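Notes from hallway chat w/ T.B., transcribed later so I don't forget. T.B. wanted the structure written out for a chain they're using in a teaching module, and asked if we could keep both sequence and structure tokens in one place. Agreed to drop them here.
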Amino acid sequence: MQWSDEAIVLGVRRHGETSVIVEVMTRERGRHLGMVRGGRSRTMQPVLQPGNSVDVTWRARLDEHLGEFRVEPLELRAGRLMETATAVYGVQAMAALLRFLPERDPHPHLYEALSVILGHLHEPADAGELFIRFELAVLNDLGFGLDLLECVATGAKDDLCYVSPKSGRAVSRAAGAPWADKMLALPAFLGDESRHAADAAALADGFRLTAFFLNRHVCEPRGLELANAREGFVQAALKALGGPKNDQPEEAHA
């Protein structure tokens, strides 16, 4: 069996004396692993770095086998991604998020989103906003999407400023006022067709929002924790914008 696709390198681990197992996110075939013979050579090591875009050809006798990759470089951005903390942590954090998805399960929109975010990881405000949207997309693909377009209580689409921790749906300011202390904040930049720029406070609210639902629906049922790289990215982005430390929210009961 054989196929070829564009891919972004997520991770590499040693295999034997000269080979490596490469984990990539492909455009059409989702997250996929394969062995690269000679992957530890001086020629291949710079290519097989997280964040690089490559062209991969996968071969195996049977579909369920690990198989082998032949890898050709397309865009080697890994060197630049080492220049800032948001970029270093961001690549690792997004790779960890993609590992929540089943291997070989196609998610072409997540591949496209990953490709876009990799070009903005040096811009803390843009990187933070895009990262939060990426987390929301992963939640949606896992079957735990949030409904942030209208108020769960009234159906109103204006003045949405809370998210119910029970339903994962937006709540308007008026409807949520009696339970405001138990609601999660909905940052304005996540509003439908919003033109609000994401500042440090809004990003902190966004990070708390996605962390709450990732922990509740994805990590806790699997006995896992969010990757340390995510916290590194969050703190780096907020620090660059002069914002406060982002503390994780306590479990809400509303």
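Follow-up for T.B.: The beta strands are 2-15, 19-26, 30-36, 53-59, 68-75, 160-163, 170-172, 184-185. Might be a good example for the class.
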